[in-house]
Queue: 2 jobs
Job 1
Amino acid sequence: MMSNPSLLILPGDGIGPEVMAEVRKIIDWFGANRGITFDVSEDLVGGAAYDAHGTPLHDDTMAKAQEVDAVLLGAVGGPKYDTLDFSVKPERGLLRLRKEMDLYSNLRPAQCFDALADFSSLKRDVVAGLDIMIVRELTSGVYFGEPRGIWDDNEGGRVGVNTQRYTTDEIRRVARSAFELARRRNNKVCSMEKANVMESGILWREEVQWVHDNEYPDVELSHMYADNGAMQLVRWPKQFDVIVTDNLFGDLLSDCAAMLTGSLGMLPSASLGAPMANGRPKALYEPVHGSAPDIAGQGKANPIACILSFAMALRYSFDLGAEADRLEAAVQQVLADGVRTADLMQKDGGTPVTTAQMGDAVVAALNTSI
Ligand code: IPM
Ligand code: MG
């Protein structure tokens, strides 16, 4: 008998455990109703791991992450850890997972659900029906480049250094993943960098063009400076299909794109690496939002980003696209029915539901789907 696919759940800090508890309900639902059963294990990451082990990611957890079929992560970080040494900050746990699993392609879809179009800070016609995909390079660039550090400058001051560094292979592999996605969408890729001021940006532009010309000439490719890209994202985001960009620009541009959809609490992500022996890609799924310490433990957090991250796992790790569609449709249904967590309330909008009530509403919508 084939064994069940395995999931490692890392709830993390802040609202992470609360939103992940709702994902557990969804996982259980698929087991009970669709015969899709996972072997689920749970472990610590971020500040929670630091509190228990003095490190934001224990070696045993890292080893487990390498073995499972997919990792689901909640969020890391919090003010309690702000004064920790840089090397043990909660964020280092997440960055270690990304780096050691070599998850170079970070998919951040920004979709505007119809029911939320009036909630965006932009006008309805600018965002209604929006469906774009940001592909962020995730394992290189200024996040990891050497040299890095803070040094005395020997003149009584200090100097802080980070290095933006990209190789041909690093650019080409993430470009390929963007072109592949575009072929299954609207066949358009826009690559963003700062080739006007950065040599790494010039290389980025040339290598993306190379991959296009040699391997994906059928896909429409354009290039844009990343600052202009930020502006175009709020001016007329529907001009884009797939955006491919580096680690730091992708971090910024994806937060910006998230707000187009109404709330950061809505956006999932998938971080994918090379295929494993079983053909599945190395994979970690997490909401784009952070640990939101200001609302943690109050039942206010929106679990939808985390739930939709599990939908991405169904689609990208387990080849269960129809089941991912089912889950996304259930979320859409709940929003259309007017169910709203606090982040999705208009000023005069009535009473918000709790995190758990939102999870229950999604389960109820799933029940009507079968
Ligand atoms: C993200 C986050 C992370 C990043 C932090 C938590 C390290 O902002 O996933 O966008 O900067 O990549
Ligand atoms: Mg970010």
Job 2
Amino acid sequence: MLIAIPTESHPGESRVAASPDTVKAYVKKGLKVIVQAGAGAGSHTADDAYAAVGAKIVRSEADFKDAAIVLTVRRPSDKLVKALKKGAILAGGLDPYGDRKGLEALAKAGLVLFAMELMPRISRAQSMDILSSQANLAGYKAVIDAAAHFGRAFPMMMTAAGTVPPAKVFIMGVGVAGLQAIATARRLGAIVSATDVRKATEEQVKSLGAKFVFADVADAATAGGYAKELSAEDKAKQAALVAEHIKGQDIVITTALIPGRPAPVLVSKDMVETMKSGSVIVDLAVERGGNCPLSKSDQIVVHKGVSIIGTVNLAGRLAGNASPLYAKNLANFLEPLIQKDGSLKIDFDDEIIRGTLVARDGGLVHPMFKA
Ligand code: NAD
């Protein structure tokens, strides 16, 4: 059975869906692996590193025609899809809530599509969760970027010439990215506060030594571990609290997302205008519309002295870490599907398969996406 790893075609995507470690593990199971030349370049992994553990380096998409499994970071290019045989498995970050027509076209190509973003939040699937592995790095990088851009220091410093006050950092959305952002900002010596609409996050915030800021809203946690949209009344309560709190903050990192919905607007233009000149906002939700309406993809917008950083794919800026973790998530997902004799067996009744399978036999099959 042949596993194939293409070079990502999405502009600016630096990550790759296999690492030398995962290739080595596939080869050990008796599988053949092909890696497209240059696939690891953005993660500083040379073709030779894959070849050294048994992969064959191939030049073009046409070489993927016999692949039984294709692993990607993002949706595949049309050229790649055309080269694949019907029934081939394609697992990766397929952006299932984005560009519906593109998803339908992928399904029509007859591929068995697994969108790894839809991984159920159950303990058995934790090691397969690409959102977690990548969001953790993004949360860290957001704080590092904010610190690099901020014209002042994070920690308090007592010097003979006077005291440097600690920076005040506010984290909005305390999921995986938010928790790492809190921990990183604390390590840098900032005074950290955080908010979320899931009440369970209070304890997590406090255990990291940050202050929890919570509007008196109904708990928005869903059974799946995500948040749902607030009622109009609760949105107003949250906005009033944020407006009051944000005035005194130097750095705001926003990470709030609601699956399948545009990102909630949490920091309005008016709120930005109450912040001190020199303050920095990093909007991690920019790819999903942004938590701040002023943020723009891959731009730093300066509004009345406040910088709003909208870097997309922050995890990809740490590709040397992001790729191996992502690759391992995929390897953990494939592990139960690959039998001892190297053949493939998919249990279509399994919760993880049902949760992530988007298309098969030429059509969308996931309950959330089928027509
Ligand atoms: P996410 O990326 O969907 O959202 C980020 C955060 O934004 C969430 O905490 C959410 O509650 C918050 N949010 C949404 N609307 C908001 C609003 N209006 N104001 C403030 N905050 C808002 O979430 P995520 O980081 O992927 O994870 C959510 C939870 O799932 C976390 O508690 C995480 O620990 C848990 N999780 C569990 C597993 C597992 O058990 N396998 C795996 C990964 C994550």
